[in-house]
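Sequence in, structure out.
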Amino acid sequence: KVGCVFQSGRPLEVFLEGLRSRGRRQLRLRTGLLKALRDIAQRTVALVPLAMSYELLPDDESMFREMCGLPRDPLRTSDLFFWVLRGIRGELPPIGEAFMRFGNAQILE
């Protein structure tokens, strides 16, 4: 499937961390997709690093508890459903601005 998407010429969005990171710690990179791209590429592939950050986090209370050493709340589909419903109703608090920072393109060899 990776080959079909890549051969179409469309850009791919890849999260090399593989997981959602909390705080500023660095997670181990997941390089399987990059290896697959390298193996199927018949042209030059440029990778553009991108960092996304937010002024406020929607789940800042649970993140604070986790950083204090308390256990993380389990992820539940029902919570996502009710969060989306609250968003549709306009009941979510504003989270401020989002920021994006692009790094220099790197050529995949």
